[in-house]
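Q: What structure does this chain adopt?
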Amino acid sequence: MMALSALLLSFCGFAALSLAMDRHQEDVLGRTLASLPNHLLRAAGTGLLVLALLACMVGKTASVAATDWLGLLTFAALAVAALLSYFPRALPPAAGAALLVAAAASLFAF
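A:
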């Protein structure tokens, strides 16, 4: 369950980091955001990626957790890139749903 949480948290983190970029804001939102929301999105994206690493570390050694995390980051980044390429407006709802499922999966893991 924690691997699922880590994957979904990574997806949300990359979604937040991509929405902090002007280029993707135009595609997804139709406009660019001000400076403060960009900084908040960057901080949220970084925090979510760190939370994904912590989720990978539950019950594993550091080397196995880091390997798992890097593999999950790859799949999450691929999913965000695919959504940005083909269905950019679907990214915010998908990230929101992923965050809810990640929270539920984390609760059920304990």
